[in-house]
Request: fold
Amino acid sequence: MQGVPTRPQKMVTHNWGNLFRDLVAAICADAVEEEEYCRIANLLDRDVGVLESWLASLGKLECTYWVCAFSVNQHCTICGGNPHNATDSVTGDLHP
Reply:
């Protein structure tokens, strides 16, 4: 990637009621093909270096994910407008 625009390989949605750590753990679990994310959530809490080494050893640090929580301005649809004239951070287009 190294500053080069890259298409995501997978799309991830979220639940506002969950911990952010669990979202990250679920993404990492997918990358390493784990069926559950609890072990990875524990590593995020206790030793992120071990998790990073695990991902690196499997060649998974370059996996790309599109996370809707970061990529979609949900306020423009939830709030019924764009009172602050927010723009898309990539295209510069004004949000509706």
